[in-house]
# Entry
Amino acid sequence: MSKRLIKKKRPKSRKAPKARPLHQTTNLEEAREPIRLNRLLSLAGITSRRKADELIAAGRVRVNGKVVREPGFRAIWGKDRIHVDDREVPGPEGRVYIMLNKPFGYICAMSDPLGRPLVTELLDNVKERVYPVGRLDFDTMGLLLFTNDGEWAYRLTHPRFNVPKTYKATVAGYMEDPAIELLKSGVRIPGAVRAKAKVTLLSRN
# Structure
């Protein structure tokens, strides 16, 4: 079978419509009673529980001015003053879940040393501090989620929960059957083998 080179023009980057919160709930249940410090940091969107344990063990977390090194230490969110390094942990607020149709030409990060446009620039009408759940590459468009719910983000992104993701890709050249089988069996990269993928060929135009 002969190979054909297909040149695809990438659509011009378009600024996405301003994102709006999809759903909000309150963290009143967590705020009423003392909760474990590692869970509190996760709920506040600071980091995952596992990383919170590391921060606490390293002496980087203070509660009411005192360094706490026990992950099981309990604090009242919104009442006790909690700091990670010199950053104060914000009190409980409404949880926000945002769906954004990310356009081409934006990077999924909170900052970029190269000065490229950030996806957070599309959220200037969202007052809560949110962060992207996972990422899409600079030259990729599609659904991107944002939240300030650390626990929810962890359950969506950690491999142990096996949350499936669907991608539609346009490739240059001809997609041969061996390449498709390679994706199905798991692509090998230095030091790891990517998980097997379900592949559906939509067309060979």
Q: What stands out?
A: The longest strand covers residues 95-102. The domain at 35-88 is CATH 3.10.290.10 (Structural Genomics Hypothetical 15.5 Kd Protein In mrcA-pckA Intergenic Region; Chain A). DSSP finds five helices and twelve strands in the chain.
